Amino acid sequence: MSFKYDKLFALLKERGITTYKIRKDNIISQAALTKMKNGDGNIDTRTLERLCSVLHCQPGDIMEYVEDSEEQ
Asked: What is the spatial distance between Cα 57 and Cα 68, in angstroms, rounded to a whole number?
């Protein structure tokens, strides 16, 4: 895993936006949301763009790069 999305989930909680609302409003798919929660696979830049647009933030506000050595 190279990216962590803990910042995204903290931002959603801070703004009172549930993951249900994110899915219901078709902002991102259930598959993308699951990947972000589990840290699996790659997230499309269009997904990041939609999140940034809805949350009025920058990509660095919702994700962070983690070196492989830090994960262990």
From this structure: 26
